[in-house]
Amino acid sequence: MTATEQLPLAGIRIIDFTQVMMGPVATQVLADYGADVIKIERPGTGDLSRTSFPNDPAGLTGPVYCSLNRNKRSVVLDMRKGEDKAAVLRLLETADVVVNNFRAGVMERMGFGYEELAKRNPGLIYAVGTGFGLTGPYSHKGGQDVLAQAMSGVMARRADPSLPLCVYSTTFADYSAGMHLVQGVLLALLQRQKTGRGQRLSVSLLDSMLAAQTQEAAAHLMRGREVNWGAMPLTGVFETADGALVMVGAFKADPIGDIGKALGLPSLSEDARFTTHALQVENKAALHQIFRERFKSDTTANWLARLEQQDLLCAPVLTLGEALADEQATINGMVIECDGRIERVRVVGSPIHLEDAPVAIRVPPADLGQHTAEVLAEIESPRIRAAG
Questions:
Q1: 1, 19, 68, 369: least CB-packed within 10 angstroms?
Q2: What is the pTM of this model?
């Protein structure tokens, strides 16, 4: 048995209609752990993320596409052509899972709705990623990460309410929903082992963002109170003489006393403005002004050493480049690479570390339609099942 055949999802075939991020980040996880993911792309352009950097030299595949589409096979088929549509239907008859993140009604108009496919393949798991849900007033609205941030309450919640509203700079909703989509597929595969039946499952950007706020939502629903961990009075981001750090004054018997010791301000906990949590909240602006002035007087490394000596939670504020180059990221195997067709592919690895199933790039991010002939030949010989 080959190393690929020993991966946990080896033998599972996934037909992947997804593009951009929410869907591809999900199917990449499944591909990393052995599933044969066949990515169906439109002629000419393929996944929209292929050209996310329009000024790239000719022939290069966009880094965003590379980041989400390793270990998949690319097939180009035109759904407007009867023979191509028939080929997709034959593929779907051999599949364990089909995944799409189109707007409501698109798969049905192409003839690939759940009811139609379930008749042909009763064991098929039909996974759908949407913006806002399969039904309801927003079901036909285009889903997108920033919209989900806005409509879930995430965007309105800030550590400092005086700051202007802004877009979160990482695609938090897409990634979160993609991981929930992975969970849904795995749960449905486990249930199929018990029942022999497939099923439809769905995940939305909106629901994922609401679920991410589970603590805050429960506080609102049950007590009508606001919980904002970023706004806690002993927590904050502070500039130093040569950078910045974050400090979390929590999970301690006397956090302000320990902070005072670390900052060389032993009388801080005796200041009448800060003797209780309620007073710290009330006088947060004055407290943070003291923190800012003090942290500015020394380097990040020195302050981290002093804070850690008091067993206070703290960390330097790193750029993405610094984080990727950090020794811990290297030890964790969080940068993986391989030779692509034209250039070296270097992307973030999997955060899931299975000792018996290490993630590697078995199939580099494919050229558009690179595997079309190979996959179409397989459906003419249905016993052939690629392992990825």
A1: 1
A2: 0.94
